[in-house]
Amino acid sequence: MALTITEKIIKHHLINGTLDRGRPITIKIDQTLVHDATGTMAMLELEATGIKRVKTDLSVAYIDHNMIQEDFKNPDDHRFLQDMAAKYGVMFSRPGNGICHHVHLERFAVPGKTLLGSDSHTPTAGGIGMLAIGAGGLDVALAMAGEPFTLIMPKIVKVNLIGKLPSFVSAKDVILEVLRRVSVKGGVGKVFEYCGPGVKSLSVSERATITNMGAETGATTSIFESDEVTRQWLRAQGREREWVSLHPDIDAVYDEEINIDLSLLEPLVARPFLPDNVVPVKEVTGIRVDQVMFGSCTNSSLRDILTIAHMLKGKRIHPNVDAGLSPGSRQILLQAGAEGALEDLITAGVRILEASCGACVGMGFAPPSEGVSVRTINRNFYGRCGHTSGKVYLASPEVAAAACITGEIADPRDVFVEPFYFEMPSGLIVDEGMFIAPSPEPEKIVVRRGPNIKPLPEMGPLPDKLEGKALIKVGDDITTDHIMPAGAKFLPLRSNIPAISDHVFEVLDPTFAKRAKELNGGFIVAGANYGQGSSREHAALAPKYLGIKAVVAKSFARIHLANLVNFGILPLIFADVKDYEKIDQGDDFFFDVTQLDAEFRGTLHDLTKNIEIEVVCPLSADDLKVVKAGGRLNWIKLNASNDRR
Ligand code: F3S
Question: Does pTM top 0.90 for this prediction?
Answer without folding.
Answer: yes
